[in-house]
Amino acid sequence: MKDVKTTVIGSYPVDINNMELMKCYFEQKNISWNKYIDSAVKDMITSGLDMISDGQTRDSFVNIFTRKLKGCRIRGRTEVTNKVEYNGPIIIEDQKYVKEIIPKKIKLIGVLTGPYTLTKSSVDMFYNDEKNLAFDFAFALKHEAENLQKYVDLISIDEPFFSINLPDYGKELVGIITKNLNCSTRLHVCGDVSNIVQELLEMPVNILSHEFKASPKLYKTFKKYNISKNICLGSVCSDNIKIETVEEIITHIKKGIEIFGDKITQLAPDCGLRMLPRNVAFQKLKNLVKASEKIYGC
Q1: What sign for the dihedral angle of Cα 249, 184, 204, 112?
Q2: Helix (H, G, I), strand (E, B) or coil at 280
């Protein structure tokens, strides 16, 4: 078997002191998120993961990007009021910080929310053309990806809206971001992707990541195809507080091996863990690592 890494999709729950943040805001003090990043990173490393994220603690997975892009403002939701353009680093400083505090053997994922998801999550008050807006988001994210690759081992693009409606230009959007990058790339699409498997297999990324635990029927669907991509196998639910046992996870992974064989290069939760209680998220990761060790022996 190839070297299989235990990892995450992106977000992780932390206990944020909202009163402290509000006080800093009104007193016009700089707000540091380092202690929240520390909390997420510590849990992920302690659980035994091979590859971690920064926990995406700073903001929601949409606002964290649109808050810093030209042409966007946030009033409850993101509103696009002018041409979307890159306006400098967005998540780079958080990745640089994580890189400084983690052991060298731990790998780091840089997570980008995809251009189509940013488009579908925004109120368009300028373009009146969904496709043009999506492409401008993609070009802006390309700049961020080029900066990000200097500090991370993998760039993961989250496109949950692909499972709802994959546009005919979806592959082109992803390709804009991944073209000529020097690091490995992953596309994460949660939800039921059974109707778009062929299109996903043609995406210009190295790894495909999906919710195989919550949607085990995907095993049967993927079995129909020649799997050309490496797979990040969703192996614990991210929207259920029930903690899967090590034995349950092992059974699930073995089913995946029957279909994907050594194309499985990553084991992860189905999606981000932000909505789970912290102790539940932590135990799910610990059990995932234990299951991986029993199967792969490392």
Answers
A1: positive
A2: helix
What local confidence, expressed as pLDDT, does residue 3 receive?
86
Q: Which two tokens stand for residue 184?
A: 């490995």
pTM surpassing 0.90?
Answer: yes
Side by side, which strands form the sheet with 70-75? Answer: 70-75, 77-85, 122-124
pLDDT in tens, 264-282: 999 999 999 999 999 999 9
Confidence of residue 298 (pLDDT cuts 50, 70, 90): low
> Domain tally for the chain?
1
Q: Are strands 70-75 and 77-85 parallel, antiparallel or unpaired?
A: antiparallel
Q: Which domain holds residue 99?
A: 5-296
Q: What is the CATH number of the domain that holds 198?
A: 3.20.20.210
Q: What angle do CA 94, 211, 267 make, to 5 degrees?
A: 65
User: What ranges in the chain are assigned the alpha helix state H?
Assistant: 18-26, 34-47, 63-66, 92-101, 115-120, 130-148, 170-178, 197-201, 217-222, 246-260, 278-296
Q: How far apart are CA 88 and CA 85, in angstroms?
A: 9
Q: DSSP assignment, residue 242?
A: P
